[in-house]
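Duplicate of earlier report; Lrp/AsnC family transcriptional regulator input re-posted below.
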Amino acid sequence: MKFDKMDLSILHELQQDSSLTNQDLADRVGLSASPCLRRVKALEESGIIDRKVTLLNQKKLGLKLTAFIQISMDRHIPDRFEVFEESLASFPEVTSCNLVTGQSADYLLEVVVEDMERYHEFLLGRLTRIPGVTGVHSSFLLRKIIDRTSLPLDHLI
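Output:
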């Protein structure tokens, strides 16, 4: 899909606040409501706009512990990875799962829980019981320095 500056402006505004009404969005980008809505619909239909979500305040919900977990698997075969990934999909504590390369781990997870006791229960009660998991290395978040949900768009200009 080819983007013009108006598309990029719409994407930028929606990344900052997806709850904008079409009229508010149109006002911010300098379009009338109908052309703005057509552009948003086209961006949605093309898959550029993947989904709209509401971001919740982790601390106010009592989720005070974030762990970054490196997982090593015993065998590098598709069936083993599939079982692991399907298991993780049922764990709401896992906010991110990435298959990675360039380090000793196969997966890098981000997990959010209430406290260390809940983390311990999650780790020993569920995560390490998934077939094929042979190594777990955990690091814990001390402080978020940058916490963006928006993607860079400058390369599209």
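Residues 59-140 form a domain with the Alpha-Beta Plaits fold (CATH 3.30.70.920).

Merging into the original ticket.
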